[in-house]
Every structure is written in structure tokens, then in C-alpha cells.
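Service request form, structural biology core

Requester: graduate student, group of Dr. S.
Request type: structure prediction, single chain
Budget code: on file
Notes: please return the result as C-alpha cells.

Sequence provided:
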Amino acid sequence: MRFRTSVWLALSVACAACSTAPQAPPQPPYDAEAAVAAIRKSAVAARELDVQPLRDNRVEDLRQSASALEKQRKYAESAAALDQALAINASDPALLQERAEAALLLRKLDDAERYAKQAYDGGSKVGPLCRRHWSTIAAVRQSRLDVLKTTPVYKEEFDAVLARISQAGRDVAAARAQADACTVSAPPRY
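Core staff response, request fulfilled:
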């Protein structure tokens, strides 16, 4: 009787070991808060003219509410407040950039890139806000590159994936170059 129990136990353990699914590789850690902090830091320049437009009071109240909610880590509610502000003024580049950063905090990378591109297309092509747009795009592209680099592939797909990784690397470098190009130095004074 003991022998049968031991055999059944051994067979159960062996079958259980064979039936476990292979574990997916761990995804690279994505720290959304650190990414947004780096994006906002990229806008800081030593000496640069930064013109801020007059804002609608309703939009400004919603922006402040969104900022307070973000500080409380209520990212979905913050994004909803920014969406309400965008319903009032859909073409405000600063508002679109803030919404892009909210999308990053919600880990909605496609939305973050879309909002940042929309903000760049409708806004200034130089200055701190421009750097934030392109830093957001670079962060999204870097995240995609990190996922590509850590995803296992079959031997047959290796060349295609290697080409995608190479293209993604070029996309990240291009976005970073665009962010750098947003900085315009002051004219020389004689």
C-alpha cells in the first residue's frame, strides 16, 4: 500500500512538472513617474525665452485640478480633468502635452505619443514645450525598444526582429535629436 502511494505521488509530481506552462520573460521595468519627471526636467533651460499665452479660467482651473490629482497619484481622474479642459480648448499645445504625460502615467504609450505629436504640430517648434513634446515621444519609443530587446523570438524571426530593433533605435535617436534641436541659444550681444 505504501509503495502504491509513493508511486502515485511520484507520478503526480512528474506530471505536474511536465504540464506547467513556460513562464513569460519578465518585462523591463517601466517607471512612468520617473519618465514623466525626466520629461518635465528636459524643459528646464538656463536662459531661454518662454512665452505663456493667456488661458481661459475654466481651463486653468481644470489644469490645476488635474495637477492636484496627479500629485495624489489619481492618474485616471487627472486625465479625465485634462480631457474636460481639452473639450474647451482642443488646440492648446501645453494642455495636449500635459495630457500626453497623463497617458504615460496611465501606461497608454500610443496615446502619449499621439498627444505629444499633436501638441508639437500645433505649437512652437522651439523652446521648453517643444523639448517636452519630443522627450515624451523619445520615452515612448525607448519603451517600445526595451520591449523589443527583451522579447524572445524564434530563430526564423530573428532577422526581421533585429531589423525592427535597429529601426526602433534609430527612431529613439531621431526623437532625442529633435528634442535637442528645440533649444535655441540667445543671440550674441556685442
